Structures are given as C-alpha cells and as structure tokens.
Amino acid sequence: MSALLRAELLKLRTTRTFVTLVIVTLALSLLVVGLSTMLTEGFTEDSVRELFTFDFSSLFILLLGVVGMAGEWRHRTITSSVLAAPDRVRLLAAKLISYAVAGTVLSLIVTAALMVLGTLILSSRGETTLGLADLADVLWRNLVVAALLGAFGVCIGGLLRNQIVAIVGLLIFAFVLEPTLLALEPEVGRFGPTVGAPNGIIGINPVSEGDLLAPGIAFVVMLGWVGLGFAATAAALRRRDLV
Amino acid sequence: MAPVEIRDLHKRFGSVNAVSGLSFDVEPGRVTGFLGPNGAGKSTTLRALLGLVRPTEGTATFGGRRYDELDRPSKQVGAVLEDASFHPGRTARNHLRVLAEAGEHPPARVDEVLSAVGISDAADRRVKGYSMGMRQRLAIAAALLGDPEVLILDEPTNGLDPPGIAWMRGLVREQAAGGRAVLISSHLLAEVAQSVDDVVIISGGELRGRGTLDQVLGGDDGPATEVRAQDPDGLAASLEHRGHRVEREGPLLIVLGASPEEVGAVASEEKVTILGLAPRARSLEAAFFALTGGET
Q: pLDDT (tens digit, 9 = 90+) per residue, A101-151?
C-alpha cells in the first residue's frame, strides 16, 4: 500500500496541475484576505476567524480530486494504473489517501500564508487579531475539511468518470443546490457533503442562520460521505471491464 | 504448468460472444503469435488474461494464478496493450518513475529501460510531444521495467518505422532466448512469421488453429512439393496413382502431402526427368486465410 501511495503522490507532484493549483489557490486566498483586512474595519474575533476560513484550498482540492480520478479515464491511463495495481480497491484507496494528503498540504500552505498576511495587516491597523490557540483551532479545521473534500472529490471523479460532467455537476451542486437546500431546509442541508458538513467542521455558516452540526458530528458525517463514496466507487470500479 | 494458460475462456459483452471456449498455452523460451482478423477476440483475450475484463467463464492465468493474484505483477508480467495511453503532461521518465514506485523496482531501472528502448534523449520531454513510435517504445519500456518472466504484446509494431520493427523483432527474440514466454498479437502476418515459434489463430472468438509455425504452415495436407518435369502429365498421373493430390500452376506441379524425397523417388521409378524440385512452404497468410475462412 505504501508503494502505491508513493506512486500516487509522485503522480500528483509530477503534473503541472497541482503546482498551478497551489499557486492559484494561494493567490486567490491571499487576495481575498488582503483586501478584506485592508478595506474593512471593526473586526471581532469571530469575524477574524471567519476571514481565516477563506482558504480556497478545500474547493480546489475537491476539484483536483475529481480531475485526478476522472482524468484516469479521460487520458485512458486507468489501464496502466490497474496493470500496476490489479487490486482496484487498493488502487482507489491509495488515490483517495494521496488526495487527502495533498489537500492537507495545500491547506497548510494556504492557511498559514493567509494567517500571516491577515495578522500582519490587522495588527498594523490596530485591529483585533487571534491568539495562537485560536489560529491553531482554525488551522486544524481547515486541514480536516481539505483532506476530506480531496478524498470525496476522488470518489465523485471515479463514479462519474467524465471530467467535464463531474466538474460542472459538482460546481452546480456545491454552489447552487446545496446552499439552496441549506438556506431553505437547514435541518437537512447541514448534512450536505460540500457545504453543510464542512461548515459544521469549520464552525461558520455564511449560508444560513440555521444551526450547524457540532464539529465532531460534522466530521463523522463527512467521513460517512467519504466512506459511502468510496464504497460506491470501489464497487463500480471492481465490476467495470476496462476495454 | 505453462507460464500462460488459457482454459475454456468465454467472454460475452451483452449478446455478443467476444471469446468462446478458447484454450491454449504459451511456453517459456518461445514466442507465440496470436493471430486473428479484426474483432476476432484477441484484445479481449489479452485483457482477460491481464485482469482488465472479467471472463464470463473459464480461466486465464499465469502459472495457474490470475493476474490479480500475483505477488508482484510487474515483476512477473510485462504488457503492452494496443491503445497504450499516457498522461500527456507527464514526461516519459516521470511516467516510468511512477510505475517503478508502484512496482517497487529500483529507480535505476528507469534509465536502463529508457536506454533499452532508445528514448533516453527524449526522456524528459512531455509525452504529448511524442510520435506514435516513441509512445510505443515508452509502452515497451514500461513493460520491461520489472524484467518480467512473461511478455504480452498487443500489436507492438503499431506506429513503429521499419528500423523500429526490426528492433522489435530482435527484442522479442532476445526476450525468448532469455527464457521468457512471449505472447504477441499482430495483424502483420509477414512480420509475425519472422518472429514466432508457435502460432494461435482465432476467428469469431473461437480457436481455428494452433501449433508450431511449421505445423500451421504445413496445413492439413502435410508437406507440399513443387516439381517441374520434362513430362509433367506422366509424372502427375504416376503421383496420383500412388494416392497423392496434384495441382497445376502452369508448368509447375504442386504435390500435396508429399515431401521432395517422395516425389523424387516416384520420378526415378517412372524414369521421368526432373527439371526442378523444392519443398513448398505455405505462407502464413495463406494458412491464416485457410483457417479463418478468408475473414479479414
């Protein structure tokens, strides 16, 4: 398993997509946090916490997970992947873990950078800043969400296989359907995999006034989504003839 | 137990029988040509052998074990499939490094196989800039990475230029000489005829012929002899009187089921002057068409 995991991580590192993604995510996150901290006044601890969750890595790693897995079909590399690792469930597990690791690394880089930038600007303007314990609290939540969404993206890519359909479908779901559900039926929407449960882990709900799931429960719910996605993708992958 | 064993293999896709009851072995130290017209079921058979499609019935194994049961598959089996694909943004070296990591092969093997297939100079270029022949060489490099005991090659000369084809022929013979079992599918019959020891011919998913190359070329009638004689009618009558079937191609007599020695003996007995006498080898193409009923 460790050999497969190393191979999958090497795959990630040796394509331009991941490097581009790190740069874009970092630039976008720093831009949002930089502008917000420079242009807004009267920060509270809660609003600073919320600001530091503007880590776009969760969204981008979700999309990268989709692209990485569906790309195996797009580029028809799934055949050589399965020849190298004929146990397809282990192959899927290695891919899922590698994207969870990539999500963690990406979020660590981005969150740390935006925290440093935000804190520097806020302190220079005499605004409220967070102590180390609060920063660490925001950081681990961001990391966990990025890891889980990276893994979830792999499952979606494996199930849908068509990159375009998977990405467009996921964007519609994450930006239209789930926020709508969360706003209209928060009791149901808070269990959603791309907004509801991740917001529960982060502890901030910009979509609705309804109660979020407690972080621990939201974490278990997200694990459940990933587990469900893994089981469905593994079953489909095992059954599928690669012709 | 043979390195490759196909036993009563069936594969059905919906209502289509792609492979029906196919059985054959591939022996170590020999190159086995796997021939058949388009849609005969060759690629499906190879994919079933490699665990990429699930047989409906029967087995396709390596020394009795399915591909997914092998401890280190790339150490035991190297495969080049017809539609070998690579991530276009990754370099050849990176592609092989990933496979070396997954197969737990030493990193030095990457450079060795790049050199063996002659693409070391292009190793750090992205694959999207590769010609078809270079992609094919990269696929072969990937197959050789684990120095496997069995090589499965599906149309390996696709995209190769004449020097590349000659190189491939040498590689295949070299691998067999090293004791490896090589199964090679191809539609280039003349090419296969120069490289293989054994032949398996399928059509419509069913086995149509198998054996050594000599056996398959000999056909059902056994050996055949070409003879030119001063009195072809007299010699033909004598041969037919002795039970041989004789066909005519202009002044040439084709004697089916008789060796040159037998024909020479008859001519001597009948005191017919021989102008020319030679064994007639049926071409692989002729054998192929005879066994597949002319399908292409």
A: 999 999 999 999 999 999 999 999 999 999 999 999 999 999 999 999 999
| Residues B178 and B105 reside in one and the same domain | yes
Provide ipTM, 2 decimals. 0.88
Q: Which of A1, A83, A92, A239 to mutate to test binding with chain B, by most B CBs within 10 Å of its CB?
A: A83
Say whether both B199 and B54 belong to one domain: yes
* Two structure tokens written together for B142: 């990937």
Q: Which two tokens stand for residue A210?
A: 């309804």
The number of distinct structural domains making up chain B is: 2
CATH number of B162's domain:
3.40.50.300
Distance separating alpha carbons of residues A12 and A21, to the nearest angstrom: 11
Contacts of B225 (CB under 8 A, 6+ apart): B254, B255, B258, B259, B260, B262, B263, B277, B278, B279, B280
Gyration radius from chain B CA atoms = 23
Contact A218, A198 (CB under 8 A): yes
Read off the pLDDT of residues B210-260 as tens digits, 9 standing for 90 and up: 988 877 776 666 667 889 999 999 999 999 998 888 988 888 898 887 888
> Within 10 A of B110 (CB to CB), how many other CB atoms are there?
23
Task: Provide the residue ranges of all domains of chain A, joining segments of one domain with +.
Answer: 2-239
From CA A188, how far away is CA B257, in angstroms rounded?
Answer: 83
In a domain, residue B268? The reply is yes
Is B166 inside any structural domain?
yes
C-alpha distance from B56 to closest chain A C-alpha (Å): 11
Q: Are A85 and A136 in contact (CB under 8 A)?
A: no
In 3D space, the residue among B246, B236, B245, B244 whose CA is nearest the CA of residue B267 turns out to be B236
Residue B244 exposed, middle or buried by CB count within 10 Å (0-12, 13-18, 19+): buried
Distance from CA of A97 to the nearest CA of B (A): 15
Q: How far apart are CA A226 and CA A217, in angstroms?
A: 14
Q: Six-digit token pair at A149?
A: 């969404």
Distance from CA of A144 to the nearest CA of B (A): 27
**B286 located within any domain:** no
Only one residue has tokens 């017809």, namely B82
Under the phi-then-psi rule, with left for phi > 0, alpha for psi from -120 to 50, and beta for the rest, what region is A185?
A: beta
Domain at B250, CATH number = 3.30.70.980
> Is any Cβ of chain A less than 8 angstroms from the Cβ of B87?
yes
Cite the beta strand spans of chain B per DSSP E: 4-13, 16-26, 31-35, 57-61, 77-80, 150-154, 181-185, 198-203, 206-212, 224-229, 245-249, 252-256, 274-280
